Amino acid sequence: MAARLVIEGGVPLRGAVSASSAKNAALPALAATLLTAEPVVLENLPALADVTTISRLIEQLGAEFAVERDGATRVRVARVKSHEAPYELVSTMRASVLVLGPLLARTGVARVALPGGCAIGLRPIDLHLKGLRRLGADIGIENGYVEARASRLKGCRISLDLVTVTGTENLMMAAALAEGTTVIENAAREPEVVDLARLLQAMGATIEGAGTERIEIVGAAELGGCRHRIIPDRIETGTLLVAGAITGGDVTVTNAVPRHLGALLAKLEEAGAVLDVGENRIRCRGPERPRPTDVITSPFPGFPTDMQAQLMTLLGLAEGLSRITETIFENRFMHAAELNRMGARIEIDGAMALVRGVPHYQGAPVMATDLRASASLVLAGLAARGRTEVSRVYHLDRGYERLEAKLQSLGARVGRLA
Ligand code: UD1
Questions:
Q1: Ligand 1 within 6 A of CB of 161
Q2: Most exposed of 80, 108, 138, 321 (fewest Cβ within 10 Å)?
Q3: Residues 213, 187 contacting (CB under 8 angstroms)
Q4: What pTM did the predictor assign?
């Protein structure tokens, strides 16, 4: 049987805990190492299953890894020795598709398995491909693989039909080695996109506008090595703050970037949490009982879909009715049925969840279905009366670094069964 987390609920969490570096910034950073033959040193890669997966992938493509004396990871792709991202890796992690843009830009050839649907929705990559075609790539789909070729990509104007995070990142990386200037309109404004721009700039790229909806990239003939520090994980930070709020505790997250969390902090306050926001720390004191509020997910700076499940767990205990609307993914409410098994009263109506607050959850065996859903079940377990067993925690390990150890340090009674 796969590992499970066992939680004895009802302990108010107290203390301070540090956020790890961001999964969704580490993945494009590792993909970006494919753009240069020189070493790129990443100071603070988080120890996560998804980071291991993309590391294995770029290793197959030619990357060599070394650990520096200070613990930083040195990645060097002196020579690209394969052009293929195989199905076995892309199917475990869709973000593997991030190697497409850099591989194509550096070598003129890339073969990447087409990701299928996933637990939370269809998630096509048509906009990545459309953008690369605009940059001059010749792209076909053969036997389940994207086959991309180009002699040298040429800068152009790309207007994205909808905001896509990894799509924006893939195109930024490709454009960094293209000939001439590329403008990406309707670009994603997520902090992870800005972090990637910072890395590419340190590698010698000229990029303006990251963090706005219009990013301009002046392609270079070559990029060089650099040293880069990845931003803290805003979703992990948010999850830990909700852990404080939902247990009526008092949790401070250090190494946090409050400006990356504006929409979540607003919702926590509406739900009755008392926040104390410093320059790089956030303290959250939980309410006696949360107040209901409405939430709608949207691209940054809107409320992140990656925090929807965790906030739903909090609002499931509110005094009254909350409405949560999911606009990014079409099937991202699978945690609701599991929460209902713990006593929640959540009804799904298309893209909206009607959350009627209950006074408390009861511990139960529950099953994680995806990364953030598993975090929401852990949160429910922390608040519940009695014992909760969350199975399929490999989902959790994809994106949270030592979550149970961090929760234990705050006083939670949580353990892992192998
Ligand atoms: C990234 C994040 C993920 C987060 C999501 C939305 C990483 C590694 N993952 O995923 O944690 O939940 O952003 O904030 O950074 N779409 C298309 N065609 C495309 C691309 C996307 O239709 O070519 C759709 C998707 O199906 C989805 C929406 O656009 O409905 C947004 O997805 P996108 O921003 O691309 O998500 P990811 O980059 O995959």
A1: no
A2: 138
A3: yes
A4: 0.97
